[in-house]
Amino acid sequence: MSVATAELAPSVAVVGARDGGRRARFDAGVRLIAGIGLGASLLLVSSWWAAGGGLQDLAGWQTGLESTGRLTGLIASDLLLVQVLLMSRLPLLEKAFGQDRLARQHRVVGFTSFSLMLAHLVLITWGYAAGELARTPATLWDLTVDYPGMLLAAAGTVALVMVVVTSIKAARKRLRYESWHLLHLYAYLGVGLALPHQLWTGQEFLTSPGATVFWWGLWATAAVSVLVWRIALPLWRSARHGLRVTSVVPEGPGVVSVYMTGHDLDRLPAEAGQFFGWRFLTGPGWSRAHPYSLSAAPDGRSLRITVKELGDDSARLRRLRPGTRVLVEGPYGRLGDRARTRSKVAFIGAGVGITPLRALAEEVDYAPGDAVVLHRFTHRPLFGHEFAVLARERGLTVLNLPGHRRAPGSWLGAGVGTADDTTALLHWVPDIAERDVYVCGPEAWAEDVRRSLEAAGLPPEQCHVESFGW
């Protein structure tokens, strides 16, 4: 097969996915159980509230405020701990959901829990003020200084406010990734400080041994998950594998590949399509982990990432010296063979978003002609020679889509003609609905691709997306 710029020839060869979709079905089961578990936990805490007289208390003004405040506090507490679990890098959830889906759900759960927490604060204070709005500020002060754990809760609320404000889309656009990442870590501090007062004094937390075990168990699970999967495991893997930079190779304007080697890399559970959080121990910026995908299939001897200079830390990679030590977190992400259910595959990438797809095209199983790459780029394609080798040796079909995006809402480059996106896609890949499709690129662009794939008849479960949003 050949590398082309204008047209593609469809193929008919068939090869089975590596495990027949077994892992994808297992992950779907985990997602279902996780959703049922979340719903059950919310019903459980609500039932304890009702059993404690919460429904009867709604009959009065003051008692109704207090009762509603307790309910919103219970649900907020449950969701805050779920939010921590979602981003704790718990392997079972990480493999089943993938980072993109976890991040979206984390955002929804986070804003919901924060809104309910504020409602809890207002309602419970208003109720303790005998339902008199004018007395509420003084009552809030008394609660803060007199009740156990309330000073900690106030500090935790301030930390969570800071995290939520900087997570709003308009605010994120004004922040460097490095600053946003540092501020976002305060979410753990906020949750850790905001919840203990309820564990100590909240009546719904103490009404029965079952309730006490549930709340302390959920809190401990969240805390242990963060300590193990976000701190202990990355440190252990970094020490065990001893990664060091071997070379830095320019790939194009503002794009470099970083090659690394280490010990026992064949035991590092990484697959093509996944990413790590990387910390290069060069001085400034080492404390921040940056998510970069593998751009070559891991071979047990070395790792490669390819990065575009988009910020302060990514620009420093060009100046890395051989021998620089590297700390890693991961591997993460579900943009890989794990999600696959079909024998045929398609890879659609934009710019440097082609990097994990390049690794996938090397590693995953497919017959000649059963895999196609669509690469949109502005100036010149990344890995042009490497894709040509894969085309020659493995029968990979490559379609280059050059030029700036031709119109708002279009994911195609200006050099591909005037047909609408879906028509063009079906012309190049008529059987797109029968494939697993892997998409990687900027968030808005990836969403445009998703819409075209949906219009072309691709079932949602066969669309696997990783975007650059944060």
From TrEMBL:
Cofactor: FAD
KW Transmembrane helix (keyword) present: yes
The entry's keywords: 2Fe-2S, FAD, Flavoprotein, Iron, Iron-sulfur, Membrane, Metal-binding, Oxidoreductase, Transmembrane, Transmembrane helix
InterPro entries (alphabetical): FAD-bd_FR_type (IPR017927), Fe3_Rdtase_TM_dom (IPR013130), FNR_nucleotide-bd (IPR039261), MRET (IPR050415), Riboflavin_synthase-like_b-brl (IPR017938)
Topology of the protein relative to the lipid bilayer: Multi-pass membrane protein
Localization per record: Membrane
Transmembrane stretches, start-end: 32-51, 71-87, 108-129, 149-168, 180-201, 213-233
Every FAD-binding FR-type domain range: 238-338
Major subcellular location class: membrane
The protein's name: Ferric reductase-like transmembrane domain-containing protein
